Amino acid sequence: MIELSSNSSEHGAVRIFRSQRRASHIYMHGDSYQSEADCYGISLASYIHAIYGLICQTDARSVLLVGCAGGTLATMLSLGDCEITAIDVNPIAFEFARRFFCLPGSVECCVADGLDYLRGAGRFFDVVVLDAYDGSTIPDHLTSRHFLQFVRSSLNSGGAFFANVHMCNDADRARNALAASAADVWPNVRILDTPGNIDRNAIVAAGNVSALVTPAMHVMPQYDIEMIDSELAAMEFCDVPAGLASRL
């Protein structure tokens, strides 16, 4: 990979690379891979296409993204009729997303912590997406019941919440922990995952999500179409196990 730019701050080291094998850009936070996109800003990560496909099923018109990195989901959603607001604690994320990942000017960008933003926003959204990582983990306060209560109070009637959760393997408890917190806030919580895979991304969905089906790819990237399509087809929904919160 060829390094194109870097920035170090209190929020950690961010580096942007270009793949030597293909014309894609990669966003790294420390040693953690957080975004990869083709030259049009279309994600090459299956979980981004999964969240996009789920949002398409909700007919959302306003979406809040907690966490930006390369901003690929915001870029893809901006191709439709959605009004997108992205927040991130690190201002360099927005600069790099616009320079290297085609994030359009129509996306509203706010430098803020997710919890702080929801406390004072006074706005309502059809969908809230949590995809915020400090390196390889979601900050604890963004997985808390307290944060999720603010998310629910910021959703329009019939709104939905989606969270990306990185899973090392089936023994990883991160997915179930967030689902348990969500189950304390919403009556309907589901998990979209690919059990058995290592180093994967699961999606916790809550709110008006009972009718959702396994998502298909809607926006075609320049690369990896067959791989992404196959990975989406392998994902499956499962309900939060009864009594999960009491076992964690």
Keywords, separated by commas or semicolons:
28% helix; alpha/beta; 248 residues; 8 helices; Rossmann fold; 12 strands; eight-stranded mixed beta sheet
Detailed description of the structure:
- The protein is of the alpha/beta class and 248 residues long.
- The protein has one domain: Rossmann fold.
- It has helices spanning 46-58, 72-77, 91-100, 114-120, 145-153, 174-183, 225-234, 244-247; strands at 2-9, 12-18, 25-29, 32-37, 62-66, 83-88, 108-111, 125-130, 155-167, 189-193, 200-207, 236-239.
- The chain has an eight-stranded mixed β-sheet, with helices on both faces. Strands 1-2-3-4 form a four-stranded antiparallel β-sheet, covered by helices on one side.
- A hairpin with a 2-residue loop joins strand 1 and strand 2.
- The longest helix is centred in the first third of the chain and has 13 residues, at 46-58.
- The radius of gyration is 17 Å and the shape is globular.
- The termini are far apart.
- The mean pLDDT is 93.
